[in-house]
Design a protein that fits this description.
heterotrimer; A alpha/beta; B alpha/beta; C alpha/beta; A: Rossmann fold; Arc Repressor Mutant, subunit A; 3 domains; 22 helices; 53% helix; extended; B: alpha/beta; Rossmann fold; 5-stranded parallel beta sheet; 3-stranded antiparallel beta sheet; 30 helices; flat
């Protein structure tokens, strides 16, 4: 047996020797967080705790949920099963839970799966908060403990939690008589996981999600409370193996009157604003009931609404309201149908430039610049032809190319086109349906180039001469002039997201392209070239 | 801004082709390397050679002048380049200032819903209204689909903001690639801000960095160069993440958008757009920049180097039709410059001419050691052959040169005046310029005697002719017409600007002066009439006669303009010795700028005799000879097929061609099968394999040069021709 | 009043801690002879005392108290003969990968035997160490109990861990018990041949508790101890009221409906916890309403809730999709939905007809709410409006939702009805 002892002895020594670094970095983390050391009390929300009633008043339409949460969190030092808060975007889940903890002044660890976009970062952020570790320059912004696997995480989490809980115990033990402000309440610690729905996209093995749900049983520490916050309902998390689902708490979207209350909060001139809300709220809440979207929609509208007013302080009477409404009326419909507003910073010269650009059309010239009155960005002529041909290539069936583009070009292909369209009248709506379903078709490079060559040749032949005159000299090699370095143009079109491209090298035709530009943009481009696009477009 | 790599990309196929040729021709004839070298150098060397025999005996101090020209080139080009840089910077500057102002405003807006230093590092978001969760975003529209021009712009913007005390990070679409994911862009963000690279990049690190005393209370600006190219999902993740830390880390986004406002809409889903508080900025459009550059470089002649009308027209067309990038325009300019200084032996005078104010003094001590041949050559220049009256001395040369300089001055002044007028009609300087450099414009009478001598080729007559046709829509005429019907106030402004412009051309200047005095008088009168409110009829009448005599004024101004055009706007190519300062050879520029590679390759393959001047198949007959290079044989054979080539037939015909002895003429192809069979009977063992080898090699070369596509799975015995037309 | 306030709160805390503590919950099952507890205890203790190897599978639905009972057994065994047992706990969720499983075993062994554990040790070091320790413990007549929770996870991959464990146990010297805990009843079918041959197919099945077990369980959980800090009269009154409730038919009714949906103990505990949380602190007693509210809030229908959250426009889109499905349009995407939407508008001149991008936003809202989803996961560069979608709610749910929607336009109801 002695001989069997020996390897173990050596092993022990190796273990001891190899285990020293662990201890060392353990203490150096404590040392580095020395300059302004975090205490256990940094785990509470901090700031002055708020009363329950002001908490209730600050969240209109959320009374039920808040009281529910208070019940479930329970009195001091009462263990808790995992909670699961769910509800749509901007229904106040996160804010309310944070405010409740501010009210209760209990320690918690918050981590959002949006910020922590990978398991490792999630684990490390939790550990950093528990170990009261602060990243800064002199520890190279490194986290306190490196844990990538759930297994390592559980081990270190358990010991960290026990430490924290012990300190909490002795705190509450000694200061049970009187409690200094900012002192953490109770011996419980809560872990909050926000944006849980994002975890589903994390890893294909999807072991993290069941792990998080099982975490309570794995830890098996009654002093630890888990709170999950998710945008999607619990049934989106069902797995084949089933899971112990936490206690669900729904945060429904706000009803119209609670929306009104929310918007009425801290308004300078409540009367005025309420009259404004009378106008807009109902109609807008038919589209969306999200606070953030509504507020972004309202803020410019309210400015418009106030424009006729001399001073924003006055209380509007009936006819004033009517006047304001009639002033607002024209702006409502566009605001309803717009989701993405851009206000430009009007500085005189830029505006002037823009105006100049806008009124380019009266200079009747061919070439790139005239396009500015429709397209407000610069494309070279060849790029325009290329994009048009790409558009055609992904719209027209390849079988029609021969009839649409023949050597004689645009002159007689009108009647040809009509013939072909008549022939395939019955296929038309099926093709339309198809276009509706799978969008613009793909095409190989050769087809694009062929169409492009046809177009350019047509153009050169048709408006060759006057172009010569207007463009001055050098356009003599018109066709080849346009044809030169088409591939560069193509790549830059791909970069501009006008043509989407699958595959690698454009020289070997294996890759297929697809024109992703909208029809009206294509029409604009065509108009800027005086190119009869509709004539070439299948299905008229 | 200059991107030579583009040019290299264009040229790549040449090298491939030539390499292939060399490898195989080494097998054939050893002397071919020399030949090839001659091929590559041919344009320059030929040019030089011709110059040589013009200026006989120049070889002596050839090197001296080489050197002179070299440094002249360096001087001129550096001058041009710096001018361009300044111009562009000035164009961007006010937009930059505006952006900076906006950054400060939005930063204050963020600060207004304030946060304490300790809070900033906490992991949980600050509880605020939804509006505060929004991200201030500036969309900078670079109104050009091509992105090349704006590579520098955003860097400069970053520097500008940095210099005004913001934290700036420049991200580009490479950081937002799908396979790196969100980690990639965070990593590069932290690398730029913290100067550390972490394997687990995390935005909370940014927060803790920001909460350091040094970095606090400064806006954090993140610039994304090209939004269109970013991977949408990664970008939206990034934005969501930033918006979660919105108040704690006051990040301000600036995104460059090349095309339209739809681009962000298409890339980002609505819930991400929701988090953007967008305001837009417009950079100067390419045509504006182009005008600015043209004005500074080609019209104001910052360096004295100028281009002929063909070149100008070519460059204009290249800008409008090929690729609308300033980069390529500038590249073209540079190439022109290089070509000029490399080809024109007297071009070294440019520097001297424009460094010294009084070129007289320069010449007085220079002309002594000025070699005879040079003078001879100078006076043999086509532009001064016409007035051979005075004897050929340095003084005259110097005098003519200074004259040239003066004329150019007048010319540029006139063009600028025209431009001032044209501005009211949205006429672009580029067009005006291209018209103004066409020789014998404006005054057909004055320039008639130039016609024969100044530029002697048939095409120019056609130009002149064309010009006369397009008289109605010529820009100069438009400008002048605009002057005719210009309201008084604008006319006043116009004259003011003219006064400024024409300061150093005295005779025009005082003309403008007197016009102005007239106008002032008129204005005074009209104003008086406006002030004195008299019965209606009177006012109407007074208005009538008022705008009548303002019409008179317009007429005067227009006439002045016309006289200026006629007398002072003398295109550079009508001036003696203009070859020294002016570059005219458009073909060279074109071939250098866009040497349409595919076309070239095919041409070379088809008429290869021109290149490898081999004795064996120098006869110009189109017959396919076995002595020809395999690749060209194959390609010539391929011409007979459609875009699908049956490999077997191809191989057979190739074999037959190779086997036919060169003694027998071209009508071999008919009875090739019989012949082939006989041949194969005797030389079966050694030939077959080697033929196949050569065939394969040739086919691969064709594929390398991108003229063929290899057989596909579907039709294994067919190759496809990728070559589209010549 | 203040005097009454405290005991109620204490009682609440006590009840909550009881519910949250599985060891406490499952003690009533321990005494009966034929309970899983006694089976398990008998097996393990026999193999401990007779110094033989053994392997057991604990099977049963999730939340039926497998781990809890096992923990009880182990606790009691440790109490009986402490120095003869050392327990190694693994969890399939954490240690499914053999490498870190062996590492974890080595770590826990080190902890058990006061050795220093090195993080650097390789897989072979650790497995050698494990084997050696097995032998050591065998020679020292010390039983090692391996608890493999989520057993089915260990059967993924090459099952090297299981093989090495069971193989080591074939040697006479070693003395170990491997206990697999799994919620997959076919867990032993997942084993490889070589592993299964070494595995003793002893299974302990965990069935939902019977009625009287439940009754005992409830009383066990709820009845307050009379002889503690809690004021005596309060506790007595509390228990009395509790008995009334438990005896009440309506309460039995609630419990039955609850157990019909999910009859595991965990589910019951969640329900009880909820009920306890709603205990009125004023009176300080549980009431039937607490259980009613708990019932209503445990049994949720998330789809319906999210349907209520929808805006009118989103409802329109849902109805359009429903109509498309009624038309047996096998696959449809946003564009076809928009076509339908426009058709509806043209037919009935509805007041809310909005621009395309607004509808697209509403569409994305629905996707986020998971009322609809895309057919193909992660459609490639194709933009959203071309990807095929499908409804995630049945037409009946939609119908109910529209009926209960407060201000639902009549036209929508009409459209769904026809």
């Amino acid at each position: 047996m002695g001989k069997e002892e020996s390897p173990q002895i050596t092993r022990r020594t190796t273990r001891s020797s190899s285990s020293t670094p662990i201890l060392k970095n353990g203490e150096e983390t404590t040392k580095t967080s020395e300059p302004h050391p975090l205490t256990i009390n940094d785990l509470v929300f901090g700031g002055e705790p708020i009363k329950l009633d002001e908490l209730l008043s600050s969240f209109p339409g959320r009374r039920i949920q808040i009281l529910e949460l208070m019940r479930l969190l329970g009195p001091l030092n009462s263990p808790m099963l995992p909670l699961f808060l769910y509800g749509g975007t901007s229904t106040g889940k996160t804010s309310i839970i944070l405010q409740i903890f501010r009210h209760l002044n209990r320690p918690f660890v918050y981590s959002s799966c949006l910020t922590c976009y990978s398991p490792r970062i999630l684990f490390e952020s939790i550990m950093n908060q528990l170990l009261l570790h602060r990243k800064n320059a002199d520890n190279g912004y490194a986290s306190a403990k490196r844990c990538e696997r759930p297994s390592d995480f559980v081990v270190s989490l358990r010991e960290a939690l026990t430490n924290v809980l012990n300190t909490l115990k002795e705190n509450s033990g000694k200061s049970s008589s009187r409690k200094p402000a900012g002192q953490a309440n109770g011996r419980m610690i809560y872990l909050i996981f926000d944006n849980l729905e994002l975890v589903r996209e994390w890893d294909k093995s999807s072991s993290i999600l069941p792990f998080l749900f099982e975490l309570y049983d794995i830890l098996n520490m009654p002093e630890v409370g888990l709170i999950f916050i998710s945008k999607v309902s619990p049934d989106a998390y069902y797995s084949d193996r089933g899971y112990v689902e936490p206690i669900p708490i729904l945060f429904p979207d706000y009803t119209e009157d609670s929306l009104r209350q929310i918007f009425m909060r801290n308004q300078a001139n409540p009367k005025l604003y309420s009259s404004f809300l009378d106008v807009v709220l109902r109609t807008f809440s038919r589209i969306t009931r999200r606070v953030d979207e509504l507020s972004t929609a309202f803020s410019p509208l309210f400015k418009k609404y106030c424009e006729p007013l001399s001073d924003p302080g006055l209380v509007p009477n009936e006819d004033m309201k009517r006047k304001l409404f009639s002033h607002l009326q024209p702006h409502l419909a566009p605001a309803l149908n717009e989701i993405f507003k851009v206000q430009s910073q009007p500085s005189p010269e830029v505006e002037a430039k823009q105006e100049k650009v806008k009124r380019k059309s009266n200079a009747n010239k061919l070439g790139g610049r005239e396009a500015f009155d429709e397209i407000d960005f610069h494309m070279s002529t060849s790029a325009k032809y290329l994009i048009i041909s790409a558009f055609l290539a992904s719209r027209n069936p390849a079988t029609l190319d021969a009839s649409l583009f023949d050597s004689t070009g645009g002159s007689d292909n009108r009647k040809r086109k009509r013939k072909s369209s008549e022939k395939s009248m019955e296929q038309k709506e099926t093709a339309e349906q198809e276009l509706l379903m799978k969008g613009p078709g793909t095409f190989p490079l050769e087809r694009l180039l062929a169409i492009f060559q046809c177009l350019t040749s047509v153009v050169e032949s048709s408006l060759g001469e006057d172009q010569q005159i207007n463009e001055g000299l050098g356009a003599g090699n018109g066709d080849s002039g346009l044809m030169s370095d088409v591939l560069l143009q193509l790549s830059s079109l791909c970069n501009a997201n006008f043509i989407s491209k699958g595959g690698s090298c454009p020289l070997e035709g294996s890759t297929r392209y697809r024109a992703t530009i909208s029809e009206d943009l294509a029409l604009k481009v065509a108009r800027s070239l005086k190119f009869p696009l509709s004539k070439y477009l299948y299905r008229g | 801004m200059a991107t030579p790599d583009h040019a290299e990309n264009d040229l790549q196929p040449f090298f491939v082709l030539h390499k292939a040729l060399v490898q195989k021709s080494e097998r054939k004839s050893s002397g071919s390397r020399k030949i090839r070298r001659r091929i590559e150098l041919s344009p320059i060397s030929a040019k030089n050679a011709e110059k040589m025999e013009i200026g006989t005996g120049e070889e002596r101090d050839d090197h001296h002048y080489e050197h002179l020209r070299m440094e002249a080139f360096n001087f001129v080009w550096s001058k041009i380049e710096s001018t361009i840089k300044d111009v562009l910077r000035n164009i961007n500057l006010n937009v930059f200032n505006e952006i900076h102002r906006w950054v400060c405003e939005s930063f204050d807006a963020i600060k207004s819903c304030g946060t304490t230093l300790t809070k900033a590092t906490h992991s949980y978001p600050i509880v605020t209204d939804a509006t505060f969760r929004q991200l201030f975003t500036g969309l900078v529209f670079t109104k050009n689909m091509e992105f090349v021009d704006d590579l520098m712009t955003f860097e400069e913007l970053g520097l500008h903001l940095k210099s005004h005390g913001c934290h700036v990070a420049n991200l580009s679409s490479i950081d937002f690639s799908a396979n790196n994911g969100i980690g990639g862009c965070l990593r590069s963000l932290l690398r730029q801000f913290l100067m550390v690279t972490l394997d687990a990049a995390d935005i909370s690190i940014l927060a803790s960095w920001y909460s350091d005393q040094g970095n606090y209370n400064k806006p954090v600006v993140v610039i994304i160069d090209d939004m269109e190219r970013c991977c949408g999902s990664v970008l939206s993740d990034f934005i969501l993440m930033l918006s979660e830390w919105a108040v704690k880390v006051p990040v301000i986004l600036i995104m460059g958008v090349a095309t339209t406002l739809d681009a962000p809409r298409n890339i980002l889903p609505s819930n991400v757009l929701q988090h953007l508080h967008v305001s837009k900025f417009l950079l100067g459009s390419p045509s504006e920049r182009m005008d600015a550059i043209v004005e500074a470089v080609l019209v104001r002649l910052c360096s004295g180097f100028c281009v002929g009308y063909k070149v100008a027209a070519f460059m204009r067309n290249y800008f409008l039709r090929q690729d609308g990038t300033l980069t390529s325009f500038i590249r073209a300019l540079k190439i022109a410059c290089v070509e000029h200084f490399s080809s024109e032996p007297l071009s070294f005078m440019l520097k001297a001419l424009f460094v010294e104010e009084n070129s007289q003094g320069f010449w007085s001590e220079e002309h002594a050691l000025f070699p005879e041949e040079m003078l001879k050559y100078a006076f043999d220049l086509p532009s001064c052959r016409r007035n051979n009256t005075e004897e050929r001395t340095g003084e005259n040369l110097a005098h003519d040169l200074s004259e040239l300089k003066r004329l150019q001055k007048c010319w540029s002044t006139t063009v600028l005046c025209l431009y001032e007028a044209g501005k009211y009609n949205k006429i672009q300087l580029l067009d005006l310029f291209c018209e103004a450099v066409v020789p014998c414009l404006g005054n057909s009478t004055a320039s008639n005697h130039h016609l024969g001598s100044g530029i002697s080729s048939s095409s120019d007559h056609s130009i002149h002719h064309q010009y006369l046709i397009s008289e109605k829509c010529s820009f100069i005429c438009q400008a002048i017409r605009k002057v005719r019907d210009l309201p008084v106030v604008l006319l006043y402004q116009l004259l003011k600007s003219w006064e400024k412009l024409t300061e150093d051309v005295i005779e025009i200047h005082d003309k403008v002066k007197e016009l102005q005095s007239l106008l002032k008088f008129e204005n005074g009168k009209s104003l008086k009439q406006d002030l004195t409110n008299i019965p209606k009829r009177h006012t109407s009448r007074s208005h009538l006669n008022m705008d009548k005599d303002s019409k008179v004024l317009n007429e005067k101004a227009a006439r002045l303009m016309e006289t200026m055009v006629r007398d002072y706007m003398q295109p550079v190519e009508c001036i003696p010795f203009h070859e020294i300062v002016c570059f005219k050879n458009v073909d060279k520029l074109q071939s250098a700028l866009m040497g349409d590679p595919r076309r070239r390759i095919q041409l070379d393959l088809l008429e290869f005799q021109k290149i490898l001047l081999c004795s064996c198949c120098s006869n110009s007959s189109k017959a396919i000879l076995p002595s020809m290079h395999d690749t060209s044989i194959l390609y010539t054979l391929a011409q007979e097929h459609g875009d699908l080539i049956n490999l077997h037939d191809w191989y057979q015909s190739f074999k037959s061609t190779v086997f036919q002895p060169s003694t027998k003429g071209k009508h071999k192809l008919k009875q090739s099968p019989a012949k082939k069979r006989k041949d194969t009977n005797e030389s079966q063992n050694q030939s077959e394999a080697s033929i196949q080898v050569r065939f394969c090699r040739a086919v691969t070369e064709l594929q390398i040069t991108g003229l063929l596509r290899m057989p596909s799975k579907r039709r294994p015995d067919y190759v496809q021709r990728v070559a589209f037309g010549l | 009043m203040k005097g009454r306030e405290n005991p109620a709160e204490d009682a609440l805390i006590l009840l909550r801690s009881r519910i949250c503590n599985p060891n406490f919950v499952f003690t009533p099952f321990s005494d009966s002879p034929d309970s899983n507890y006694s089976k398990l205890k008998f097996i393990i203790s026999s193999s401990v005392t007779e110094a033989c190897n053994n392997s057991i599978l604990l099977l049963g639905p999730r939340g039926s108290g497998k781990t809890a009972v096992l923990e009880l057994v182990i606790r009691d065994l440790l109490a009986e003969h402490a120095d003869m047992i050392s327990v190694i706990r693994l969890n399939g969720l954490l240690h499914s990968d053999d490498n870190c499983a062996v590492k974890e075993i080595a770590r826990q062994l080190c902890v058990e035997h006061q050795l220093l554990f090195s993080k650097m040790a390789s897989f072979d070091d650790n497995s050698q160490f494990m084997i050696a320790m097995l032998r050591e413990c065998g020679l020292a007549h010390k039983t090692i109990i391996f608890v493999l929770d989520e057993f089915d996870f260990f059967t993924q991959g090459k099952q090297r861990l299981l093989y090495s464990l069971l193989d080591a146990m074939q040697s006479v010297t070693s003395q170990a018990v491997v206990i697999g805990v799994s919620c997959r009843l076919d867990a032993d079918q997942l084993l490889e041949k070589r592993v299964r041959s070494r595995f003793s197919h002893r299974k302990v099945l965990f069935l939902p508790p019977s009625k009287e077990d439940l009754q005992r369980l409830l009383e066990h959980i709820f009845s307050l101890p009379v002889d503690t800090s809690l004021p005596n009269d309060y506790a007595v009154e509390f228990n009395m009221k509790l008995h009334h409730i438990l005896a009440d038919e309506r309460f039995k009714e609630i419990i039955n409906t609850l157990l019909n949906s999910d009859s595991t103990v965990k589910h019951l505990l969640r329900f009880l916890f909820y009920a306890v949380c709603h205990m009125d602190l004023e009176s300080g007693f549980l009431s039937l309403d607490n259980f009613r509210t708990a019932m209503s809030s445990i049994q949720r229908q998330p789809k319906m809730e999210y349907l209520q959250d929808c805006s009118i426009l989103e409802l329109y889109i849902l109805v359009c999709m429903k109509r498309l499905e009624v038309k047996e349009q096998n696959s449809y995407n946003f564009n076809s939905v928009m076509k339908e939407y426009k058709g509806i508008h043209d037919a009935y001149q509805t007041s809310d007809y909005y621009a395309r991008n607004v509808c697209l936003r509403a569409f994305e809202h629905l996707v986020q709410r998971e009322l609809i989803c895309f057919m193909d996961n992660r459609g490639n560069n194709q933009s959203i409006e071309f990807r095929a979608v499908k409804l995630l709610i049945s037409s009946h749910e939609l119908y109910q939702g529209l009926k209960s929607y407060r201000s639902c336009p009549v036209i929508l109801r009409k459209l769904v009805d026809q």
